[in-house]
Here is the input.
Amino acid sequence: MKQVLLVICCYFLSNFAFSQKPESVLLDYYNGEIRLSMDSAKSTALVVSESTNRPYFKALSSYLLGHTQDIGNDKISALVSYLAALETLSELDTVDLYLELNVRKSLGVLLKEYHHFEHAIEFYKEALPFAEQYSKREQASLWYNQGNAYKKMDSLDKAMICYDRSFALAQDDQKKRFQIYNQQGLLQKNKGDLENAKASFMKIIEMENTISPDLSIYLGKAYHNLANVLALEERYTEAIDNFHSALKYKRGHSQFITYKDLGEVYFLVGDRSEALLVLEKAKSLYPKVSLHPDNFGLFKLMSTVFPETTSKHLQYYKQYTTELERYQRESEEIKELAARGYVGSMVSHYLNEMKEIQQRRAQFWLVGMFLAGIISTLLVLLGWQSWKKRGLSKKVGSLNGTINDIEATLTEAIKATERHSS
Here is the structure.
């Protein structure tokens, strides 16, 4: 009997769950009330975006569809979805601060990956007014992201200003403060200010005994960055010690760059065997997904450890040139994509539309103010005329009263005279 009841309950519960409208499911997922796999979230968002006529759910479904496409590395589709969400949001009467903020922030992050740093910064700036009404944490994040974009553009002074503003807003966010200390130190290093760079990294290292385990990765980065500055000063022994300290706090692929830089220092001090040992560890962690000259430069470095006539030298140098060609090819594809204007034109089109809307709103506002001024002036003039008329009528009424009094007085005087004569 219990089993029968259990089956019946399960049947009704399942029917209830599947009878929910896709819009309700999507909203519950967005609010964190239910969990969905990426595939389920994507399919639900797609169904809602194609079926709903309600602008809010149109915007929400486009954003969540873009989010799933972004995670799935379908960047162009994600860009289109985010822009569709943003366009629909402009039609809403009410504002969802968090959705407005997330759409713009996601666009900024995505465009930064495509090296459209100027557009990324514009979207971060657009998101700031919503973040100011939402939380200081989100404001700090946006200023930090702007700083990273300016850093990529080599606008180091602007980047530093953004990091300073982010730091001021992140008083209660230790993770963000550690990120900023590291970025400020790297900026100072790039500007040749090595003493202040070391001081920035030391601000994190000095808190080593109090840092929680989940933030220890930033301690590892601080040790790594400090080691690179010491290597620039040719203080190689201290640099090696700091690289080893960094490895204690780094895990998995994050150790790759530390092993690579440590191997280079060992090579500089003439310890080829230790350099090779460390570089082999770096090779085992090579992040093939993240293609960047700083990464595949490992193979060029490894080739220099061996004499030029050996097969190992040729093997690693060939691997380096292969990765370099792949990087150059992908870079050209990105440039071609930008040159065709496929990415840039969509963003520019949106930004131009927003500017036109703002200009129209400004024009309407000016016209409205002008008309309001004319109407106010007319009302004032009409009121003045009316007041004058009322004042004049009072004066005329008063004068009439006076004349009547005089007439009555004269009449009485005449009558008195006639009585006296008779």
Summary: The mean pLDDT is 77. The first helix runs from residue 2 to 19. The two ends are 133 Å apart (CA to CA).
